[in-house]
Amino acid sequence: MADIVPFDEREGSIWQDGRLVPWREANIHVLTHGLHYASSCFEGERAYSGRIYKLEEHTDRLFESARILGMKISFTPEEISRACYEVVEAQGLEDAYVRPVVFRGSEQMSVAAPLSSTRVAIAAWQWPSYFDAAQKMKGIRLTVSRWKRPAPDTAPYKSKAAGLYMICTLSKHEAEQQGYHDALMMDYRGLVSEATGANVFFVDEGKLITPTPDCFLDGITRRSVMELARARQIPVIERHVSPEELERFTECFLTGTAAEVTPVSEIGEHRFAPGRITETLLTDYMEEVRRPVSSVNLRAATG
User: What is the CATH number of the domain that holds 109?
Assistant: First the structure.
């Protein structure tokens, strides 16, 4: 821990409410509503060689997440996309993790805060693969979390809402304490849903199987990998997956902006071996995110 530089002590600039401010001055009050009542949503994006992958989709989802949580962003999607690139450039980064966040301010401190402002900030920093590169190719180890994804009528699951990640943090902490890299979460019905910060895929007799996202976030990376699989003529099936099926699947991997495509070698008592389909989609995804483009995302490049 001694080598870790706390995020509030780093250098550079952060975009906050319409302008770049020095990194260490991008502060909020301790009585900010988003801190106490989880009225906050965010995005996780990656820039590869200066291009933010699927930026338009991420920006659209940020606005939809805010709408679901009853917050109105006072900037246009085009302004937010441009600001994402502005931050990456200000930090002098080519490869970066980009984090836009929307939250209610400190004007009111109660469960209901209709008069609170909607604040927006965007930061970017260097963040390598979510999992150790050497371990990643061997496959990471997952346990099964004791926490479950809530029913769709009990939480705004289509929003990338900060509050929905509380049980993810608890699950990942417990997994790491037990010597695992991450945890697989079941849903309120006891069906397979996702890992703590990534969607999950399985391979069964040459077909790609992934749980139907009817109570958890339908990831942008998830959809990208499904498109890549179909381009390879790999059958893709979205359906409910029971935990009893894990023993029949031969391959497993996670997908997400942070995780990218990460092979899984173990989920509890079940073992998997990264094979042809996992390796193909991992390679295709990394080529896709780094492919040259003639023009950067138009929303960010024009104004």
Answer: 3.30.470.10
Which has the closest alpha carbon to 264: 217, 196, 165, 215?
196
Q: Is residue 296 domain-resident?
A: no
**Per-residue model confidence as pLDDT tens digits over 285-301:** 999 999 876 544 444 44
End position of a domain, from candidates 78, 102, 125: 125
Of 229, 6, 256, 3, nearest in space to 140 by CA: 256
Q: Are residues 156 and 205 in the same domain?
A: yes
Interacting residues of 112 by C-beta distance below 8 A, sequence separation 6+: none
Residues 195 and 281 in one domain: yes
Residues designated catalytic? 160
Question: Is 2 part of any domain?
Answer: no
Q: List, for residues 103-117, the tens digit of each pLDDT value.
A: 999 999 999 999 999
Q: Tell me the average pLDDT across 217-243.
A: 98
Q: For the chain, how many structural domains are there in total? A: 2
| pLDDT tens, residue by residue, 259-284 | 999 999 999 999 999 999 999 999 99
Amino acid identity at 244: E
**Do 273 and 142 sit in the same domain of this protein?**
yes
Q: What is the pLDDT of residue 135?
A: 65
Average pLDDT over residues 139-157: 97
Do 85 and 150 share a structural domain? no
CA 50 vs CA 53, 112, 231, 250: distances in Å: 9, 41, 26, 36
pLDDT the model gives residue 194: 98
